[in-house]
Design goal:
Blueprint lengths: L1 H15 L23 E4 L4 H13 L4 E6 L2 E6 L4 H12 L1
Length: 95
């Protein structure tokens, strides 16, 4: 019975960690700012902490925003329909 249990565990672990079809999440890769689908960059913060503060100000105003770590540094990303609103909110928050 113990060997059957160990055999089953081996089969499950081999399936879970198989190359190309693993159910374990891969490490996220950074890309250029234009590789984020329909999201468009609205702000270029100096560091991740500043970016999170800006993102929170957008979320608090009701705008869906993401903070992405791109190859060019952190970027605040929003949907194209929210771009003008997000720019206005960030302008008020910084000024």
């Amino acid at each position: 019975m113990a060997f059957a249990g160990i055999g089953l565990m081996v089969i499950i672990l081999r399936w879970a960690f198989a190359r190309g079809s693993s159910v374990v999440e891969r490490t996220a890769k950074s890309g250029s700012p234009d590789e984020y689908g329909m999201l468009v960059p609205v702000a270029t913060p100096n560091n991740y902490i500043e970016g999170e503060v800006l993102r929170r100000s957008l979320v608090d105003a009701g705008v869906r925003a993401s903070l992405a770590q791109t190859n060019d540094g952190p970027r605040i990303m929003v949907w194209p329909k929210d771009l003008d609103l997000a720019k206005n909110i960030l302008k008020r928050a910084q000024g």
